[in-house]
Write a structure and sequence with these properties.
Layout lengths: L5 H69 L10 H31 L5 E2 L2 E2 L8 H36 L11
Helix pairs in contact: 1-2, 2-3
Length: 181
């Protein structure tokens, strides 16, 4: 069989949708800043935006842990047709970077939020604080969180470009490996 398992495909697309939403909300804050987001949304909706950004970041962390377990357990299906070495290498680098960054992103956000002494929320529950308040460290961690976000945007475009190339131009069955249906 040349396809990922149903669980692997579900995790791929679920995580992709959540990450796109998180990157969108993160960019809103990046470009507008806290004060302009407050002006645009009002305090109540700004707080909801932050709460759900944190919540879904933690959901991604949990889903990625499960995805890594499934990947280690089930592996990766073979390609239906031969793929050149450059594409195999590029695909492997992008995949590994996705795994690293999708673990790093929520962890950096969690630690930054802790360091700035804001609540880390999972829906309405405040999670325990793991590190002491340290404004300079919190700001540095948030900056790293933002740069990881930009790296994810670049990887998403590379990944989508590769998928489109295989789907529309090469027509080599690579897209079918992760197709949801």
């Amino acid at each position: 069989m040349f396809r990922y398992t149903g669980v692997q495909r579900l995790l791929h697309w679920l995580i992709a949708l959540i990450v796109i939403g998180l990157l969108t909300s993160g960019m809103l804050v990046w470009f507008l800043g806290f004060d302009d987001v407050t002006k645009l949304l009002g305090e109540e909706y700004r707080d909801i935006l932050y709460e759900y950004h944190k919540t879904f970041g933690l959901i991604v962390l949990g889903l990625m842990a499960f995805r890594l377990f499934v990947r280690l357990e089930r592996g990766k299906p073979p390609y239906e047709h031969e793929v050149n070495i450059f594409e195999l290498l590029l695909s492997a680098v992008v995949q590994y970077l996705f795994y690293v960054l999708l673990f790093a992103m929520p962890i950096l956000g969690w630690l930054a939020t802790d360091a700035l002494d804001y609540p880390v929320e999972f829906f309405s529950w405040n999670l325990p604080q793991f590190i002491a308040k340290d404004k300079a460290m919190g700001e540095a961690l948030f900056e790293a969180h933002a740069w990881v976000g930009w790296a994810l945007v670049i990887l998403l475009f590379l990944h989508a470009a590769g998928a489109i190339k295989h789907w529309l131009f090469d027509r080599d069955g690579v897209m079918g490996r992760m197709r949801p249906f």
